[in-house]
Amino acid sequence: MKVNKKMKHQGIRFSVIIPVDHRGIFLQKILSSLKKLDFPPHRFEVLVVGNGSDIESMETVKEEQKGADFDMRYIQCESRTRSQQHNAACAQAKGDVFVFTDDDCIIQPDWLKKFSAVLETHPQAGIVGGADKLAESGSAFDLSLDFVLNSPFVMGRLLKKNKKGLVKYYPKSFNMAVVRTAAEKAALGEADGMVQIFDQDLEVHEDVDLASRVETCGNQIVYAPEAKVGHFRNTNFLSFFKRNIKLAQACRKLKVHRLPQWILSGSLILACVLAVLSAVFPWARVVLGAFAGSYVLILVMSAVKGFFKTRKASSLFLVPLLTASLHLSRAIGYLLPTKP
Question: I want to staple 95 with a disulfide (CB 3.0 to 4.6 A). Which of 7, 15, 63, 213 is the partner?
Answer without folding.
Answer: 15
